[in-house]
Specification:
The chain is α+β, with helices and mostly antiparallel strands. It has one domain. It has helices spanning about 55-65, 70-85, 180-185, 195-200, 205-225, 230-240, 325-340, 340-370, 375-394, and strands at about 15-20, 30, 35-45, 100-105, 110-120, 120-130, 130-140, 175, 250, 255-265, 270-275, 285-290. It has a 7-stranded antiparallel beta sheet, covered by helices on one side. Strands 7, 9, 10, 11 and 12 form a 5-stranded antiparallel beta sheet that branches. Helix 1 (about 55-65) packs across helix 2 and helix 7 packs across helix 9. GO terms for molecular function: cysteine-type exopeptidase activity; dipeptidase activity. One of its GO terms (biological process) is proteolysis.
Length: about 400
């Protein structure tokens, strides 16, 4: 059972960690036990968006992670389900529908893909690299995520996306009927090279797309400036950049959650995923998560469930509920303190940065082989980091 649609079950699924809007089944971004990372964002194209309930792009993120043992497999899962079931339905927990199509970034230890869609049609671009790191920042709440800025790999530079089609002529794989669709609609004559972005982008973009263009170019420039010496800390700084529009906390928009993943090529080393689990990364803590057996649950970052959930009643979204988890509540209270008392707020922020630095140093030592934590310590890692953060808020 996905957000709106029930689909056939897979024989087996992989363990996943998800950053998701609490009202729906899917996720904006996440990772699985095999080091596959996927994130999505909204896009508007020449293909009409449909309010009929189908799979959300966020459902496809989770399905790709649960059923794909590599980035390529996850892409195949997503495109097959997209072609079979389509995408559609409101992506916003409000009575007035908010509908969009989706772009995705998928990465594993050895390669990455950009996947962009227009209705049931799609195009994908493969990105190779010697080492993969991914940064994802979702803007949520009102409206749902409008910014994910991922960087998949070092060796061939960087790749970022931001609410617009970005795959031009560098298409690695595509929907079998993609070009015929473009010709039948009069969007492409069939002459010359085929550019997915040029052919399927709207002639007149919505106003919100102008901000997306600015974010895209700013993100590309920030990545270019750090080319050759990018670290997980670099990614965190980019996700916190307010001047570029990548990090937003104003006018009803908020960067709702952020994720940075380090995916070593050496399979003997663990993949490490850092999550804020709270909004506005400029005032949040990135906390490390590693897949091991016996993981300790972190109920502090699980949103509550509701017996009569307005997202599941027909008609939907006729009432509201408070979906904040415990860490989110304490984080918000701390933000209010930081705004009321600038001096104490800066002290708290510095304390949080020190906590984050400890986590980063510990994970760098783990990857460098200078420390070897026990499986029990790794199983408790994320829980312990969340608990430490909550104590500072208290």
């Amino acid at each position: 059972q996905c957000t709106y649609l029930e689909i056939e079950q897979a024989e087996r699924t992989h363990a996943v960690v998800l950053s998701r809007p609490a009202w729906l089944w899917g996720a904006e971004m996440g990772a699985n036990e095999h080091g596959v990372c996927v994130g999505n964002e909204g896009v508007w194209t020449r293909e009409p968006v449909g309010e009929d309930e189908a799979l959300l792009g966020m459902d496809l993120v989770r399905l790709g992670l649960e059923r794909g043992g590599s980035a390529r497999e996850a892409l195949e899962v997503i495109t097959a389900l997209l072609e079979r079931y389509g995408q559609g339905g409101s992506c916003k927990e409000e009575p007035v529908p908010f509908v969009y199509h989706n772009t995705f970034l998928l990465a594993d230890r050895t390669e990455a893909w950009v996947l962009e869609t227009a209705g049931r049609y799609w195009a994908a671009q493969r990105i190779r690299g010697e080492r993969a790191l991914v940064l994802l920042g979702g803007r949520g709440a009102l409206p749902p995520p409008l910014s994910l800025t991922p960087l998949p790999a070092f060796a061939e530079g960087s790749r970022n996306i931001s609410n617009q089609l970005s795959i031009g002529r560098e298409i690695t794989a595509e929907h079998a009927g993609l070009r015929q669709r473009a010709r039948s609609q009069g969007w492409w004559s069939g002459d010359g090279e085929f550019s997915f972005a040029e052919v399927f982008s709207l002639t007149h973009q919505p106003a919100r797309m102008e901000a997306a263009k600015a974010r895209y170019h700013a993100g590309k420039e920030l990545l270019r400036q750090h080319a050759g010496h990018i670290t997980a800390e670099t990614f965190m700084a980019i996700l916190r950049d307010k001047a570029s529009g990548i990090c937003v906390d104003s006018e009803g928009f908020r960067t709702a959650g952020s994720m940075v993943s380090v995916l070593p090529r050496d399979p003997a080393l663990p993949c490490i995923h850092f999550f804020t689990a709270t909004p506005d990364p400029s005032r949040s803590v990135f906390k490390p998560f590693v897949f091991v057996d016996g993981l300790k649950p972190a109920p502090q970052v699980r949103s509550p469930t509701f017996r009569d959930d307005p997202a599941k009643q027909i008609p939907r979204f006729q009432s509201t509920v408070d979906r904040r988890h415990e860490l989110y509540r304490r984080h918000q209270a701390a933000l209010e303190l930081m705004e009321r008392d600038q001096e104490r707020g800066q002290q708290l922020l510095q304390t949080l940065r020190d906590l984050e630095k400890q986590g980063l140093e510990g994970m760098n030592a783990l990857l460098g082989g200078t420390v070897a934590p026990s499986l029990e310590e790794l199983a408790d890692l994320f829980f312990d980091c969340v608990e430490a953060e909550m104590k500072f808020y208290t």
